């Protein structure tokens, strides 16, 4: 039944934003009764039903879409969106995403995102000021399962095996299956190149075939201008941040610093400090001999823990404007059903607080000073000048569809430069003071065009949030 409903939404090859669920939703809504949310392990069909029920309860602030590829076994990969403009990107409103169940046997995040969607809907309808403000100011994407096939295998086996269901139906670990952009950025560093962002155009080969689930999420990342995100896992209790890969091979305990190390630690702490137990220094480690991450604030640099190549976390940071962290939500991979409600209460405040972090730092719109038209794919470069220091943050972000940009930054003083080929650069000084659950400081730029000589050769073309560029690049996968 559910597959027939899903098939009506459009072909798997259609672009991520072009699939409308409204017609099928209308059919479904007339033939179902609203049910109260239950803390249980929802099977794959029940997940689809639960999402559709949420859409029925909150049609004005939700939309649903299906990613461009199905799972290996043909299960659709679905996302529910919360916003007062749920079907489109609105300038100056940051986009945030949660993806869960990437490893099919790590199931808590899957249920937490279903409950979070239900909670958002109910609290918005009830007039909860904090939730109304968050949904009014942010566009939030929730993807409960990236690996429904693995979940099915794990569940069929009883959910007790540490490995069965971890991989997708082809036996591939999806969190090792993304293009290895760490290899590219570390090579750039070795040869003193300053290219540290939007690296997809530099991919020249793949270590292994890209799985359909991976390709679908890559299309999502490269099509929607996400600002921040998290990937929900299980098996330990810690917030993990880039870089996930070691610079010097699989070196045990190597801290692989990214240019935005301070910002990533801020994001990780924004989750761990709001979780009931993640940052508790007195809690026990998951297993004998394991590190007690609670003594480190409940956070860790990914490579310092263990090195991962081809992971989704670093791919987000190095292919797009998105700052992603990975959340390990508990010692058990397949959480007992009786524990789900307790785990929701332990994670709820942290889940919500992390979404608010898409509003830290600065944001604005970059325009042509003559035409006042927005400039797409302009660069934002940042130098930290707090307390007289002069520390360039060698990771640029770019303006997106409507000339809007979002630059996550911790508290401090910064020189911010907007630049684009064919324009004079503009630099401004800004003091960032991130106030609790408030919007980022607005800093707009207008760039003066310059007349270029006829023999001017453009610099390397960087990635833009453009369907045509995305489609062309993804053909190699």
From TrEMBL:
Residues 40-358 form the Peptidase M14 domain. SUPFAM superfamilies: Carboxypeptidase regulatory domain-like, Zn-dependent exopeptidases. GO terms for biological process: peptide metabolic process; protein processing. It holds the Pfam family Peptidase_M14. Keywords: Carboxypeptidase, Glycoprotein, Hydrolase, Metal-binding, Metalloprotease, Protease, Secreted, Signal, Zinc. InterPro entries: CarboxyPept-like_regulatory (IPR008969), CARBOXYPEPT_ZN_1 (IPR057246), CARBOXYPEPT_ZN_2 (IPR057247), Peptidase_M14 (IPR000834), Peptidase_M14_domain (IPR050753). GO terms for molecular function: metallocarboxypeptidase activity; zinc ion binding. GO terms for cellular component: extracellular space. It is found in: Secreted. Transmembrane segments: none annotated. It comes from the Eukaryota. Signal peptide: none annotated. Its cofactor is Zn(2+). CDD domains: M14_CP_N-E_like (cd03858), Peptidase_M14NE-CP-C_like (cd11308). The active site is at residue 328. Its main location: secreted. Belongs to the peptidase M14 family. This is Peptidase M14 domain-containing protein.
């Amino acid at each position: 039944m559910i597959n027939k409903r899903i098939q009506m939404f459009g072909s798997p090859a259609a672009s991520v934003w072009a699939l409308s669920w409204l017609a099928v939703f209308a059919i479904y809504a007339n033939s179902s009764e609203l049910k109260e949310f239950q803390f249980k392990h929802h099977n794959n069909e029940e997940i689809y039903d639960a999402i559709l029920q949420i859409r029925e309860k909150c049609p004005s602030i939700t939309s649903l879409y299906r990613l461009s590829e199905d799972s290996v076994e043909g299960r659709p990969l679905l996302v529910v969106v919360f916003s007062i403009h749920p079907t489109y990107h609105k300038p100056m409103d940051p986009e945030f995403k949660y993806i869960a169940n990437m490893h099919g046997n790590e199931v808590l995040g899957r249920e937490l995102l279903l409950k979070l969607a239900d909670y958002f809907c109910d609290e918005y309808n009830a007039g909860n000021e904090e939730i109304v403000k968050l949904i009014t100011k942010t566009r939030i994407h929730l993807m409960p399962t990236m690996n429904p096939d693995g979940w099915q295998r794990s569940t069929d086996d009883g959910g007790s095996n540490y490995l069965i269901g971890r991989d997708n139906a082809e036996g591939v670990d999806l969190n090792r299956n993304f293009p290895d952009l760490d290899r590219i950025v570390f090579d750039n560093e070795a040869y003193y190149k300053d290219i540290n962002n939007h690296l997809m155009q530099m991919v020249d080969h793949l270590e292994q075939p890209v799985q359909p689930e991976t390709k679908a999420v890559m299309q999502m990342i490269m099509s929607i201008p996400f600002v921040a995100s998290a990937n929900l896992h299980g098996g330990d209790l810690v917030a993990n941040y880039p870089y996930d890969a070691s610079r010097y091979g699989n070196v045990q305990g190597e801290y692989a610093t990214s240019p935005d190390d301070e910002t990533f630690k801020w994001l990780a702490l924004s989750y761990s400090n709001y979780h009931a137990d993640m940052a508790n220094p007195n809690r026990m480690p998951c297993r004998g001999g394991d590190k007690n991450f609670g003594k480190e604030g409940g956070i860790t640099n990914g490579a310092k823990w263990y090195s991962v190549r081809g992971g989704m976390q670093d791919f987000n940071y190095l292919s797009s404007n998105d700052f992603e962290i990975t959340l390990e939500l508990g010692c058990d991979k397949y959480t007992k059903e009786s524990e789900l409600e307790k785990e929701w209460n332990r994670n709820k405040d942290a889940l919500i607080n992390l979404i608010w972090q898409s509003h830290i730092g600065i944001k604005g719109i970059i325009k042509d000073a003559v035409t006042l038209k927005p400039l797409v794919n302009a660069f934002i470069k940042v130098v930290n000048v707090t307390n007289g220091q002069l520390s360039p943050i060698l990771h640029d972000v770019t303006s997106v569809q409507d000339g809007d940009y979002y630059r996550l930054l911790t508290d401090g003083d910064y020189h911010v430069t907007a630049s684009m080929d064919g324009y004079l650069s503009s630099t401004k000084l800004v003091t960032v003071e991130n106030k609790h659950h408030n919007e980022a400081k607005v800093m707009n730029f207008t760039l003066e065009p310059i007349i270029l000589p006829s023999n001017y050769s453009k610099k390397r073309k960087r990635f833009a949030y453009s369907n045509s560029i995305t489609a062309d690049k993804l053909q190699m996968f």
